[in-house]
């Protein structure tokens, strides 16, 4: 469970963390905290839905094996649940629930999400690099990004992992130092200035920015910033598959001969219980891991609201211009956040590009692999040259579309579709609740509240996508009318 918690924490805290001051300063702390907690709750329950959907995919695979064995003359009730046979990704869930075409759409959304996040980090990195070293913004888009890409693709994986750990420690250490610096220079100060600074936390409040009224809508950025859905397949695979394998190994050494026939139902029940227990443990680990990022986000929002006035256009640059107790921690935080996000995104996109070039086009030579890696680094760098104003829109796009669909809508709908489909198939085969070995192997309810909560998650996801689309179309219409 400890590893799962660490994965959640590491996945949630990334380059999007730097967007928070730009949103909380005009919002005020109370509206910002409300939006953060609401977004976090949506993502947490959506992760529960994915866990349940992954279990239902395992049920679907088992049922396929059941039908296959039944065709060979083996009764449905004689089938023993088997261990999971690999990682259940978001694409796998979509394929089993909705078909191959929807899985292809999911892959396209995954690419767009990675590209948007990478480009956003290049934009912010170039902006800060240009600010600190007084170089042109376009040069900042290519120079540091090329160095990071060269290191990522030319170093040994172990070296990249260790450097990523160093960046993570730098980010966390910078954040801790920022808290201390804020307390000693701001809130803990003396006199009327200190009272005014502390009062800024609660006197400023603009709830309208929590609604889809203009391009400053904060919710999509919050959703993107706090998302950890892409870590859920790994967590489910590690916790569930490992537990089932251990249970199967125990059964394999528990007896032989006629004893194995007598113990078949016991083995089925044991594996089913192991799966259910592991899914529930995965839910617990997800909850514990997700608590840390929301706490850090609420603290970061408080610091931003306290130190940054809503009239400041670039809060991160403003914080870097303050005294060393603030500027140095912010610099460490920014370097660690952007660095860890770029390293992970480059690796993920690079592997995806290599797989496409090799498996789809048959070009597996080193030169083609290098070309795929070059494209991985070049595309976000070129897109970032469009300007610093891309940063928040890219994060909002990632939260409103890829994140909402892949990690919100698809697992919720998959739970409804798969559970109904499996029950229908079992009913057609005459399997009822009295058939304990089969029914006990079904994935238990992981999402609190059952179908009602799952339906709410689906509606919220659709609402996020629809509201973002309407907002974008209205902005395009206004600009067109203004241009005419």
From TrEMBL:
Keywords: Cell inner membrane, Cell membrane, Membrane, Transmembrane, Transmembrane helix, Transport
Transmembrane segments: 7-30, 36-58, 102-123, 135-153, 165-188, 217-236, 285-308, 328-350, 371-394, 400-418, 454-474
InterPro entries: Amino_acid_transport_2 (IPR018227)
Highest taxon above the source species: Eukaryota
Cell location: Cell inner membrane
Transmembrane as UniProt keyword: yes
Region feature (Disordered): 246-267
Coarse class of the protein's main subcellular location: membrane
GO CC annotation terms, alphabetical: plasma membrane
GO biological process: amino acid transmembrane transport
Topology with respect to the bilayer: Multi-pass membrane protein
Name this polypeptide is given: Amino acid transporter transmembrane domain-containing protein
